[in-house]
Structures are given as structure tokens and as C-alpha cells.
Amino acid sequence: MNRHPERTEAQAHADGMTVRREVLTDAHVDRAEAGKTEFTEDFQDFISRYAWGEIWTRPGLDRRMRSACVLTALIAGAHWEEFEMHVKAALRNGLSTEEIKEVVMQSAIYLSVPSANNAFKHAQKALSEVQD
Fold first, then answer.
1. Contact indicator for 110, 68 with CB cutoff of 8 Å
2. Any idea which GO molecular function terms this record carries (predicted)?
3. Cβ proximity of 103 and 118 under 8 Å
4. How big is the CA angle at 26 (ends 59 and 131), to the nearest 5 degrees?
5. Which domains does the chain have, with CATH numbers?
6. What DSSP element (H or E) covers 41?
């Protein structure tokens, strides 16, 4: 069900780009936009409109909670490059380093100890890049 029936695809895209830039940074989005090709432009539009313009703008969860959910999902899928990017985004969204650690600890129980072990390695890398 569309919660914004009056909103156009262009408006969803614009809203999504705003949130995407706030969460991932202008630099990241600018790189993604600059790297678009005829082959990838539909995908970039899709994630801007749906992931960022529809899901990340819903009122049911705040950005802190969304970040915690995303971190867990990325650990589950072993998407380590995206995980590192979203560790940095989680900090921007208000999660503390301690809370990120707790998300990874929780994943050890529900996903696996090896997954959490790898997540700690990647989280530490991302956190050190932010602290530099």
C-alpha cells in the first residue's frame, strides 16, 4: 500500500536522495551518481526511490533503529563493504560505538560467532577510518 498516493516517482526520488545523502554522505552519493552507466542507472533510481525514498522515510522507525537493523542484515548476508559503509552511517544516525558493538554481539547469537567475528573486524576498520 502506497502511504503517499499523491507523491510522484520524482518526489520519492528527491526525498530518497535527500535521506541517502544525509545517511551515506554527499561524497558517497556523488561517487555513485558519477559512476552510473546506462546499465546501472535503473538500479540507482530504484534504490533512491524505494530504499531511501520509501523505506528510510517511513515514520515507524527512527534512523538509529533502521541503522541497527541494516547492520544486522548486512552481517547476515556477509556484505562487508556495505557493512563498513553502514557502520559509519550508523554513527551519523546517532548510534554510539558501544551500541554498534552490541548489535554485533547480538548477531553472534542469532547469526553465528564466525559472522560476528568478521563483523568486528570490519567494524573496527570502519571505526578507525572515522577516527583518523
1. no
2. peroxiredoxin activity
3. no
4. 95
5. 8-58 (no CATH), 61-132 (1.20.1290.10)
6. helix 41-46
